[in-house]
């Protein structure tokens, strides 16, 4: 997952990372980050330096507010104002990265959570100070803005943002109303902040014994043990873990309902037809993309059911339950260290060329990643590349299994996307949209899967590699499409004025779990307890984010297959996409690279690939 540090009412784009001087050698040197923690000193020397910069930024805000009413004075005046806003935004993004990384490293340290809140408050104050920009640019009109662009070459880096503001003029309010909405940003962010603290730091995790060893079943340990080879252990883990969320279903439901209502409020205030229209409107993504994805995922459910039935046969299960969905279909031949995962990733990504693997090998040597598992650490994995003048930072908990290797390849795909983008784009156009973000990261996963299949030493290893590819498609395409349906249903319920409770959310989610996993067809039995799984998914607090995993794996499969086959022209288009950053509408950039995600074909191609992979796996199983 890619995280950016700042979202503003103004459309002026945030960005990611400055690549620095990276070596070109592709040698698989081991990581120098042996401790598995990142080094935040390139951001700020210490917390005192961070706080001094925070205060300095706040002191600059009145100068930005003083720009109100000046944007239309002249082309040079517009450039100077936008440059000034952009420069402070860049500093603010770096400030936010430092605070959020420290907060996520250990969510139980109150002082670091407080500092992150101060960073959020600074971002919101910046949003208030610059809230006039959209309305003022919209008032200038296209003709005058185009004239300014022609007169002042220095405005070129702001062209896309200016054109986007003009396009969104119908959803832009008066200057006073924009200021009011900007001021509301902080309270509207509170549901996510409350959820993060409750889910990561305060829920009372149970203790269970697994093979005689006591385990505190927090989120990281749940992920580790849910794939246990023993069906009894898997069931024990699920029956101990999910009642914790069920016990807090009412509170978690109230928190998420507050988030939903905040989103619907903003959509209506900006005169969008729906929440999903607002979510896609900023990047001008056709609504057909979302609808087509859901349509094709449902059309492809027989393929998912085929895979789930194959899993049950391979695992020897008469009746599979949801607790069996994560167990590997074959025993991995080994465990991995971080250094071994990095070396394997470099080998797998050789089809991308020596420039890519050289930059990646050099980046591995830095302390960019926090990979050690520890209590209180934020769950999941992400890359935060918003500190443009430093480098990306990555968070994951490396558990020594193949899934950790795949996650590492995925997150470093984000990091390298950031590196290439920032080498080619100025700060103003370096922030690539989420709609594109998961393409290179997921392509890395697919190239790794293909490498594992091709380099398997025996039948058992090949079965494991093929099964991992199938599992990746299940979780990245079908699971995320299911999430997308849930989000859409939850938002639409609020838009219709329906009451939203934790119990109702669990019912919506349970119905989807059953449909996607073939409960009615006898493919997999879904215990009603697991309907509360929606409360475990932090991505839902980033409205309409998750569907892009599913669209991106479809695009990534297209690129990975062609690049692996040596299609150099396709590889050049792929790197063109990486280097384009946020210089144009993301749907257009993807289409120009060869993938139209508003049409059924990319999704159908991915499902065909999944069926072919199952054909190969079934043929291997049939061998004696």
UniProtKB/TrEMBL annotation:
<dbReference type="InterPro" id="IPR042088">
    <property type="entry name" value="OligoPept_F_C"/>
</dbReference>
<keyword id="KW-0645">Protease</keyword>
<feature type="domain" description="Peptidase M3A/M3B catalytic">
    <location>
        <begin position="227"/>
        <end position="604"/>
    </location>
</feature>
<feature type="signal peptide">
    <location>
        <begin position="1"/>
        <end position="23"/>
    </location>
</feature>
<comment type="similarity">
    <text>Belongs to the peptidase M3B family.</text>
</comment>
<dbReference type="InterPro" id="IPR004438">
    <property type="entry name" value="Peptidase_M3B"/>
</dbReference>
<keyword id="KW-0479">Metal-binding</keyword>
<feature type="domain" description="Oligopeptidase F N-terminal">
    <location>
        <begin position="136"/>
        <end position="203"/>
    </location>
</feature>
<keyword id="KW-0862">Zinc</keyword>
<protein>
    <recommendedName>
        <fullName>Oligopeptidase F</fullName>
        <ecNumber>3.4.24.-</ecNumber>
    </recommendedName>
</protein>
<keyword id="KW-0378">Hydrolase</keyword>
<keyword id="KW-0482">Metalloprotease</keyword>
<dbReference type="InterPro" id="IPR045090">
    <property type="entry name" value="Pept_M3A_M3B"/>
</dbReference>
<comment type="function">
    <text>Has oligopeptidase activity and degrades a variety of small bioactive peptides.</text>
</comment>
<dbReference type="Pfam" id="PF01432">
    <property type="entry name" value="Peptidase_M3"/>
</dbReference>
<dbReference type="Pfam" id="PF08439">
    <property type="entry name" value="Peptidase_M3_N"/>
</dbReference>
<dbReference type="InterPro" id="IPR013647">
    <property type="entry name" value="OligopepF_N_dom"/>
</dbReference>
<dbReference type="InterPro" id="IPR001567">
    <property type="entry name" value="Pept_M3A_M3B_dom"/>
</dbReference>
<keyword id="KW-0732">Signal</keyword>
